[in-house]
């Protein structure tokens, strides 16, 4: 699921402290939006509105553009007045793990563990994950402490042979085993809570009513079964597998940005404070350079250009031939490309030196 978020300083007369809106999509598409009016008495006393737009990445139309959908949503008659005359302050985007119980991976690896959103502990019907993230962090910390206590004393690392060597010698000591964290999590209320709502999200594809069917099923779970169903629904495949050929759809015409309520992509990315060192190794690579044009462009009309919230990918024509241009400097590390690329040809890795967006208050 891909989310876009924006901070705005509205006109004071339009602020409704503590007002909270959660509009949802139509039955055929999973997702929704949020609009929070912050109380000026909290924080630094500023009057702010935080708004966001979340689109599930299991959509099938390759012409869908989440960023432009977000901008179009802000022009809705019931939403637009909040932003008219205001000042846009910040913008950001991130892929959210909302697969739920069925998508929880192996939680440990040598010397580390997955906790919180990285492990997929979001409770989808509640739209909450902070409580499960905190508890999983506590369990991981307890397991790490016990594992470190059991480690033997590491041998002293050898000093670098050359005095000009700046890098420290490689770590050669024992690695903690956090295996107990997995069993501790499975025995906690986190696992029980996620298991009880495991069928809510997959119900969007299991019923002909789409998102509305999910709401109906969520009501049955909450008031009747309480998560004690004898079955577990499947998501039915990965998000990238659901994208259909462009020939089955017509291009979507989105309204042009007006510069007051809706905005263009690049000016929004400028608000993220994104920066990467120019000479660092690329953090976005292609497994096969021929695939973007041969398959993604030919079959799906280049969906990378639309699902990326930062304008990283664009198809250029040089000497009569098309090629995919990767503007890695723009990347805000939402990881959507690694998830939604229909050919699974894009590989995102952590950038060198902590490059990326410099979010403030996001």
Overview of the structural elements:
The protein is an alpha+beta fold. The protein folds into 3 domains: 2-99 and 241-354, Alpha-Beta Plaits; 100-150 and 175-198; 201-234, no CATH class. The chain is 25% helix and 15% strand. Strands 2-3-4-1-5 form a 5-stranded antiparallel β-sheet, with helices on one face. Mean pLDDT is 86; it is low at 156-164.
Tags for this entry?
alpha+beta; Alpha-Beta Plaits; 3 domains; 5-stranded antiparallel beta sheet; two-stranded antiparallel ribbon; 11 strands; 15% strand; globular
Give a short synopsis of this structure:
With 362 residues, the chain is an alpha+beta fold. It has helices spanning 66-73, 80-83, 130-149, 179-186, 189-196, 203-206, 210-225, 265-269, 291-300, 304-307, 336-340; strands at 2-9, 20-21, 31-37, 49-55, 87-95, 108-109, 112-113, 284-286, 313-318, 321-326, 346-348. The longest helix is centred in the middle third of the chain and has 20 residues, at 130-149.
């Amino acid at each position: 699921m891909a989310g876009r978020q924006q901070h705005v300083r509205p006109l004071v007369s339009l602020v409704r402290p503590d007002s909270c809106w959660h509009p949802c999509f139509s039955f055929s598409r999973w997702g929704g939006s949020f609009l929070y009016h912050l109380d000026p008495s909290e924080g630094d006393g500023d009057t702010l509105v935080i708004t966001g737009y979340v689109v599930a990445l299991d959509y099938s139309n390759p012409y869908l553009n989440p960023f432009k959908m977000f901008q179009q949503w802000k022009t809705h008659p019931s939403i637009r007045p909040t932003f008219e005359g205001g000042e846009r302050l910040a913008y950001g985007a991130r892929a959210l793990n909302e697969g739920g119980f069925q998508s929880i991976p192996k939680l440990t690896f040598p010397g580390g563990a997955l906790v919180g959103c990285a492990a997929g502990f979001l409770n989808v019907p509640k739209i909450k994950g902070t409580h499960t993230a905190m508890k999983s962090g506590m369990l991981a910390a307890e397991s790490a402490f016990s594992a470190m206590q059991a480690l033997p004393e590491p041998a002293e690392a050898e000093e670098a042979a050359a005095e000009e060597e700046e890098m420290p010698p490689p770590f050669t000591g024992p690695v903690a085993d956090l295996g107990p964290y997995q069993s501790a999590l499975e025995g906690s209320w986190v696992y029980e809570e996620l298991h009880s709502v495991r069928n809510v999200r997959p119900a969007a594809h299991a019923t002909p009513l789409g998102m509305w069917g999910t709401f109906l099923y969520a009501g049955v779970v909450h008031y009747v079964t309480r998560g004690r169903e004898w079955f577990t629904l499947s998501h039915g495949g990965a998000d990238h597998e659901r994208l259909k050929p462009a020939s089955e759809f017509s291009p979507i015409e989105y309204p042009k940005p007006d510069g007051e309520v809706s905005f263009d992509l690049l000016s929004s990315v400028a608000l993220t404070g994104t920066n990467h060192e120019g000479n660092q190794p690329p953090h976005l690579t292609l497994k096969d350079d021929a695939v973007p044009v041969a398959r993604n462009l030919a079959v799906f009309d280049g969906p990378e250009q639309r699902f990326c919230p930062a304008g990283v990918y664009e198809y250029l024509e040089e000497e009569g031939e098309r090629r995919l241009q990767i503007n890695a400097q723009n990347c805000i590390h939402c990881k959507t490309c690694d998830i939604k690329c229909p050919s699974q040809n894009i590989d995102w890795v952590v950038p060198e030196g902590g490059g990326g967006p410099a979010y403030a208050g996001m």
